[in-house]
Amino acid sequence: xxxxxxxxxxxxxxxxxxxxxxxxxxxxxxxxxxxxxxxxxxxxxxxxxxxxxxxxxxxxxxxxxxxxxxxxxxxxxxxxxxxxxxxxxxxxxxxxxxxxxxxxxxxxxxxxxxxxxxxxxxxxxxxxxxxxxxxxxxxxxxxxxxxxxxxxxxxxxxxxxxxxxxxxxxxxxxxxxxxxxxxxxxxxxxxxxxxxxxxxxxxxxxxxxxxxxxxxxxxxxxxxxxxxxxxxxxxxxxxxxxxxxxxxxxxxxxxxxxxxxxxxxxxxxxxxxxxxxxxxxxxxxxxxxxxxxxxxxxxxxxxxxxxxxxxxxxxxxxxxxxxxxxxxxxxxxxxxxxxxxxxxxxxxxxxxxxxxxxxxxxxxxxxxxxxxx
Length: 373
Description:
- The chain is α/β, with parallel strands linked by helices.
- Helix content is about 30%, strand content about 25%.
- The protein has two domains: about 5-200, Probable inorganic polyphosphate/atp-NAD kinase, domain 1 (Rossmann fold), CATH 3.40.50.10330; about 215-370.
- It has helices at about 25-35, 40-50, 70-75, 95-105, 115-125, 150-160, 180-185, 215-230, 240-250, 275-280, 310-315, 325-330, 345-350; strands at about 5-10, 60-65, 80-85, 110-115, 135, 165-175, 190-200, 235-240, 260-265, 265-270, 285-290, 300, 320-325, 340, 355-360, 365-370.
- The protein is elongated, with a radius of gyration of 22 Å.
């Protein structure tokens, strides 16, 4: 199961810094920087990150844009590379946004990008918090919390994901300043949104630090977060297992521990539904599915929750599956992936890759999902 890495390089990121232009935003600034002798360095800094992953080349497919936006650097280091966007002779922020949207549609496991705060803004505008991203610092302005502290650190975080280490996913602010005002000596910073970032305290600029887990407290935190995120217009299928049961208990609802229940607006709609009843219940209704690990081998489908049929899972969609688990439970897998064993091999393969697992209150990790061959 290869790690699907999306790669975006802003080839003109940081050009203005070395020639005292206080940034690189705008085509005029880029041309002026080049005329003053500025040398593009973002591809070089991306190479420093990717060099940390050379030992994992057989485990990675890089999806990227042609030429200097990613293809050249990825191929020069020997990575399997698929070009999903043709780069024009002169790149613009719109190219970055287009590539990011295509990577999101492809379902890559992570978008790794090189640039500065302007690049982060472009990617945030394209994908918001729908996918995990990580920045390689290559710009003049690095105020956003979506960047690793160095290019090598960015590569190390990706390596941790590939190795199956537990890496928390945090919400990080995307910030930028007004370059024109900055050139006049005034700093005006503005928040443009937030994105999901795989965090490790040694490597990423802005992260949370967690302590030792207490199962009872962590289950309460998981429950509180899931409930706080529940929309009143959507219905929720609540799967089997004690972690999901903790969410039901927090809502004060009766729970079918070894069955599947249906909830909307924190009210119990139906209990212990069959596969056919579930399919009928979700017709033309926005629905999300809350599940946890079942069994000692990390199964999320196919053990103790056969009511969740392939037809149901396909109708709901991977993007509407909410996986909950304590970090203690995930660590007990010793790096083994979660398993999707739905009985439909094509669906199992579609579900594979990296998925966000809620492990606390506004606390996530990225974890691999495999499937039975």
